[in-house]
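Board notes (copied after class):
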Amino acid sequence: MTIEIKTPVLGESVAEAAIAKIHKTAGCVVKTDEILFELETDKVTLEVNAPTSGTITEIKFKEGDNVKVGDILAIMQEGETTQAIVQTSSLATNQASLNISNNSVANNTHLSPAPQKLVAENNLNPQNIAGSGKDGRITKGDVLQVLQNQIQSTQNSTNLASASKQTERVKMSKLRQKIAERLKESQNTAAILTTFNEVDMSAIMALRNEYKDTFEKKHSVKLGFMSFFVKACIVALKEIPAVNAEIDGTDIVYKNFYDIGVAVGSPQGLVVPVLRDADKLNLAQIEKGISLLGTKAKEGKLTLPDLAGATFTISNGGVYGSLMSTPIINPPQSAILGMHKIQERPMVINGEIKIRPMMYLALSYDHRIIDGKEAVTFLVRIKELLEDPRRIVLDI
């Protein structure tokens, strides 16, 4: 039975995808659930699998093509078979080009002085030179033409190599196009400002070092820093609700739930999966949730629901060594917190200079909805909670 492999439903409001990779070609025998295509939308990468075992008889598109929901991607013949489609071509032309006239070879055994000198000086094989003289004999002009062809070939190779060093044109992925579009949209529509502060990470690092083994043994997940930041942000978001709100036309929409986006790197680029109802999770549940989302991002298995609807975002450029940055808001959100590298620096503590592990924090915010005082207060509150994590536990 003939089966049509079609573009699946891509998600809400997503009508088009690009073919990122074709895993099977016409003639391939496939088994049920084998990957046939990888489709890339502006949000996620989706796999199209074989619905049953059989043979692929036709591929309708090529890599890089855009397809819509319902488009026929391939045709397959159902059933276990080893039949393959084999394309044949005539070998007569190649064979003819390889045959050397016995008469020409015989006539080129002895060359006249002029072509013989050129052949010897340039280490040429006379049997590889087509003769244009009487009875196929090689003339001086024939040898000069071969030398000219060699020079031209060398020049062309040099030009190609030079051109390859100058430019390389690669089509942007759907995800990269969407990232570019949204970031530019954010800069064009929001009045983005960034306020900075720094946090002494000594208390959290000491707490983590003391309990990390016990924590991992009990909860089967490592205790990181991100769970403390998520908890601190939720406390601050509840106190400064404008940071958790968004603008909708002439209205301000205040959100009484806390879905925190955590920016992570993936093979397709930066993605922001969402930790749902983070205010209802304890430290262990937050760490497990972030770990799961990070794994799905690396394996390209994030779904559209994983990426939609965050109310606030945390981005950790510190994992890449960033000391300070100004993160861009992910619309329609109104703010984003940037974490950075922990670096030991001399700090004045009670009149004495001491070395402390410090991290710069950056809060980018939309000044249309968040006042400067609110932004600074929000960031100072996070600093207080992180420098004394007992406040998070005691809710003070």
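Comment from the instructor: The chain has a mean pLDDT of 85. The chain is about 35% helix and 25% strand.
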